[in-house]
Amino acid sequence: MVIAVDGPAAAGKGTLARRLAADLGLPYLDTGLLYRATGRRVLDAGADPRDVVAAEAAARALAPSDVTRPDLRGPEADMAASAVAAIPAVRAALLEWQREFGRAHGAVLDGRDIGTVVFPKAPLKLFVTASAEQRAHRRWLELRGRGVTADLQAVLSELRARDAQDAGRAVAPLKPAADALTLDTTELDAEAAFQVARRLVAERLGL
């Protein structure tokens, strides 16, 4: 049983995927952390996240401790993650790891290409989205909650740049799978989004 949850940054897919996994008794994987950790390793080495050789080496050297680092969020980490995710060699290095995770016991995975590339035959694919303005506001509140001073318009600009980079990359661009169900959370809080998603799970999977 694999449920794919894809969508752009700050659409609420991570919160939703975690809740679905807990409700269904399935493992959960935030695949974005793999790319964030890869980007952070590249930055730590003083290299450019767009450097193919450095990025692939970082992806192949990932250790479990890398995905639990406290510095995987924020504008610098966001852009580094998006940059390394555009490199085919990095995606190839991390693809089988993600697939093995899902094959082992089933899972709810969230990311940007779960339904299109990682598990194209998943029985349920959700594409979670929201307006850029609403997503920027959520990210701004998240940063404030962590004590990070941020300008809302700057957050919106960075988010739109990330969207463009994710959607425009040649390999595994951000887009809904042809058979994905779209869930727009612009006007929904976390509880309302979960209730909609849970109904879709019941309708599609009988669970």
TrEMBL record:
Superkingdom field: Bacteria
Localisation: Cytoplasm
MF (Gene Ontology): ATP binding; CMP kinase activity; dCMP kinase activity
Catalysis performed (reactions): dCMP + ATP = dCDP + ADP; CMP + ATP = CDP + ADP
Alphabetized Gene3D superfamilies for the sequence: P-loop containing nucleotide triphosphate hydrolases
Main location: cytoplasm
EC number per UniProt: 2.7.4.25
Gene Ontology cellular-component terms listed: cytoplasm
Domain Cytidylate kinase: 3-191
CDD domains from the UniProt entry: CMPK
Biological-process GO terms, alphabetical: pyrimidine nucleotide metabolic process
Keyword entries, A-Z: ATP-binding, Cytoplasm, Kinase, Nucleotide-binding, Transferase
Residues where ATP binds: G7, P8, A9, A10, A11, G12, K13, G14, T15
Family of this protein: Belongs to the cytidylate kinase family. Type 1 subfamily.
HAMAP family xref list: Cytidyl_kinase_type1
Protein name (database record): Cytidylate kinase
Designated gene of the protein: cmk
